Amino acid sequence: MINLAKDIHSLTEFKRNTTEFIQQIKKTQHPLVLTVNGKAELVVQDAESYQELLEAAELVETLKGIKLGLEQMQRGEGKKAEDFFNEFFNKIAIQQKF
Q1: Cα 64 to Cα 30, 41, 53, 67, distances in angstroms
Q2: Model pTM score
Q3: Of 10, 49, 1, 15, which Cα lies nearest the Cα of 33?
Q4: Exposed/middle/buried for 32, CB within 10 Å: 0-12, 13-18, 19+?
Q5: Is pLDDT at 70 greater than 80 in this prediction?
Q6: Cα separation of 33 and 52, whole Å?
Q7: C-alpha atoms less than 13 angstroms from C-alpha of 83 in its C-beta half-sphere
Q8: C-beta of residue 31 within 8 angstroms of C-beta of residue 25
Q9: Do 25 and 17 contact (CB within 8 A), yes or no?
Q10: pLDDT by residue (tens digit) across 9-68?
């Protein structure tokens, strides 16, 4: 989570004090928002926290897909898994013959 009092700095300040800011990022695992002319332009984050963010985003996308599938099932849409896999494997078998 970003601490508005400590984690927003100008790009110029970041350039002047890069080592200190990197140490801060590693210690707090909070991203830094860097501004140019007073407007947020960049976010700098440690690799471990960024990986966690990517994994959380992937989980959200997976859950959205599951929710969509359940909604479709409740509306009577889609196919039974058995029918899908039978069609799928038949299609693969046909493609492998050519």
Answers
A1: 27, 30, 17, 5
A2: 0.67
A3: 10
A4: buried
A5: yes
A6: 18
A7: 3
A8: yes
A9: no
A10: 999 999 999 999 999 999 999 999 999 999 999 999 999 999 999 999 999 999 999 999
